[in-house]
Prior knowledge:
The chain has about 260 residues and is mainly α.
Amino acid sequence: MEQKIECNYVKDLLPLYIxxxxxxxxxxxxxxxxxxxxxxxxxxxNMQGEIVDVRLKDIDTQKNFVRQTKRRLVLNIVNILLGLAxxxxxxxxxxxxxxxxxxxxxxxxxxxSIAILNVLARSRRxxxxxxxxxxxxxxxxxxxxxxxxxxxxLDKPNSWFFKFGLPLAFLWxxxxxxxxxxxxxxxxxxxxxxxxxFLLSIVGNYVTKIILGDIASREDLLDGTLFLQxxxxxxIGAVVCIIIERIRKLIKNxxxxxx
Length: 259
């Protein structure tokens, strides 16, 4: 009966004993008891492991908190500096030209950068996917702002936005979006995604030249020199990426079999 009471007493004091906040006399009594009681010794070892795990988790939590605080601080400083840049552009444009001319373009460009930076910094998951949404929306707004400023503020009445800007923007956004969506929803390997991007870029180069009028006939399209300049390097890059992905998967599968 005394042993049971003593064991209960020891178990109650074990947390304090592990944290070393008991008196020396009590510490010596508990140490002596643990040397002779396997049951309490097992409880002590389990409790010690649990406390160590909790402490490590607390340390990791504190480190993550400090890291996130630093990131937020840096991001806020960058946002403030970019905001000041917009204000400076506003003042300079009015002081020099006495009216808005190039300021909307500068402001839209800086806001575009701020949006992408904040999406990348604040997204905890799917950073690339979220970033592409910001890139796509921001690019169309930026191009529209440039067209508006050129036409109404800079006295450059041209319609390049509808003739070249929008078609090229949609073309290259689609080319980038395809591998991004494949990576997001189909779990395609990273090197395969780069290979797909390179192959799509070959098509993009040809379509870009057609839109700009650099390719006006079928003979121009089939010109071998054009492929050497705009497609060969991308094709080689695509083949290399696909081969690397195959090798990577082969090594991964062999490692799993060995395990």
